[in-house]
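Backbone shapes recur. Consider a single case.
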Amino acid sequence: MSYELTAVGFSDKEPSTLWWKRGTSLEQLKATVGEHGAVAVLGTPTFMIEGFVLGQPVDLALVSGSNRAHAKTVPFPISVNKDGRSASVELVSETGLLFQITFGGFQPGKALT
């Protein structure tokens, strides 16, 4: 899967760094921001991800001078939505041993059937 990244408010004259958080580790990638906001990572106009499992997030931060931008998505989500209630799972560690479950739409003290 690949993403095309864009950023507004960045100068194409300043060097940029794309930080990629995977689990608890950070990887620093050289990035450039074009005249119309297109972000090239390592000279490529698309950002390719491989080997991601269900629930694993893509978590990126672009830094250039005093400008910062952050984006996070889960390409292959583990989620359910039913009757106004939802639940989703996000891996926090690459081993899958640590994860976060988020619930929404549930009323405190109300029994579920």
Q: What stands out?
A: The two ends are 39 Å apart (CA to CA). The mean pLDDT is 91.
